[in-house]
Specification:
Number of helices: 2
Number of strands: 26
Strand content: over 45%
């Protein structure tokens, strides 16, 4: 009998397990088991100043996407990066409590139970860098949302970079700075159009950029007339210039390389190449080698270059078309692109107005002053007069 009892007991245990396994999908809805939580994290800034205690706001958007069942035991956690100090926490209409554990650095949001199906909203975590955070430290973290009847989800990671522990001048960001613009409208017939490129290494001291190169391939319909090399502030680092043509897309060395990068810059004319009338320059490349960070090579009015182009006479430039010209800056693991775009307009009288900064483009130190000006020009493109200017 004892053996039979043991067998009966084992059988009952096995039966309970089998029944539970069979009924569990009926107790927990199938869609809830496959995951019905959605989570996305963002921040209001990618850099924050340490010395001023600049506030960083992390926004965490959540959602319980099931339309057939409510969320059970839903919580959201966000563990602060060790370089951040919590300032404030803001819940939503669906949270019943918010707490912070300094030991684990975990912010916990507890939601109403059950959380209605289709519920969504956002919560906020505000923080600042600790005062001892080294410059250029990157704080990265993500949030996690969990429920008893849904698979946990983890948000995308977001990062914020710490900037200078003292504020004694411009704040530089690692990488290439590049800005391109032109000097006005494209009105047929097109004479000479000027493109300007403002560039530099925005990195701090020690953040050198190897193989620093600025490249500009002109849009179809343009050919080079001449260009101005510009210079980097406070340095005479030479430039290796290369070009390509409508008949040869390979980069070729410009005569006289490397070019001295003098304090006044230099004008370089396409006539130096001795090209036949059927061949013209369609792109330029400027190679500077290794460019140091820390401000010596930071962009200002002396690190601008100018490129002057003409209509190549092929009839490519047609009124109503948009011409987009992009320049690329590359070096090491860094890359930057900047574009200027203009609409080709029919022949007409053109009233041209633009403003400019007399003391150089780029970031200015706190408290510094600079001058701005406005230039006005009337371009008589056709016989049409410009009235009431």
């Amino acid at each position: 009998m004892k053996i039979n009892a043991t067998i009966t007991s084992d059988f009952r245990s096995t039966l309970v397990v089998l029944v539970a396994a069979f009924l569990w999908p009926l107790i927990i809805p199938a869609d809830a088991q496959t995951g019905n939580l959605a989570l996305e994290k963002s921040t209001d800034r990618t850099t924050a100043n340490v010395a001023s205690g600049e506030l960083i706001t992390f926004r965490i958007q959540y959602g319980y996407t099931s339309t057939t069942s409510a969320g059970l035991g839903v919580t959201l956690t966000d563990v602060l990066d060790p370089n951040l100090d919590l300032v404030a926490v803001t819940g939503s209409a669906h949270t019943v409590s918010e707490s912070y554990d300094p030991a684990t650095r975990e912010v916990l949001f507890t939601f109403e139970d059950p959380l209605p199906s289709g519920a969504s909203g956002d919560v906020l975590v505000q923080a600042k860098f600790l005062g001892t955070t080294p410059n250029l430290t990157v704080a990265t973290n993500s949030a996690t949302m969990s429920a008893l009847n849904a698979a946990s989800v983890t948000s995308n990671a977001v990062s914020v970079t710490a900037h200078e522990t003292t504020s004694s001048g411009p704040i530089f960001i690692d990488g290439i700075y590049l800005s391109k613009w032109d000097n006005g409208e494209l009105v047929l017939p097109i004479g000479r159009l000027e493109y300007r490129l403002d560039h530099g290494n925005d990195g701090d001291s020690g953040k050198d950029i190897p193989d620093y190169t600025i490249q500009d391939i002109f849009p179809a319909g343009f050919k080079l007339d001449y260009f101005y090399t510009g210079k980097f502030s406070g340095t005479s680092q030479p430039i290796v210039i290369r070009y390509r043509t409508n008949l040869n897309a390979a980069w070729q060395a410009w005569p006289g390389n490397p070019r001295a990068n003098t304090s006044a810059g230099s004008y370089v004319y396409v006539s130096e190449l001795g090209l036949p009338a059927t061949e013209w320059v369609t792109g330029l490349q400027f190679y500077y080698g290794t460019v140091a960070g820390g401000g010596s090579f930071h962009h200002d009015n002396h690190s601008s270059m100018a490129i002057y182009v003409l209509d190549d006479g092929t009839g490519t430039l047609i009124a109503g078309n948009t011409v987009k010209n992009c320049a690329d800056g590359t070096g090491g693991s860094y890359a930057k692109q900047s574009c200027a775009e203009e609409l080709v307009q029919p022949s007409r009288a053109a009233f041209h107005l633009w403003d400019w900064i007399a003391d150089g483009y780029g970031r200015k130190a706190p408290g510094s002053t600079f001058r701005m000006g406005i230039s006005i020009a009337v371009r008589e493109i056709s016989s049409t007069d410009l009235e009431d200017a």
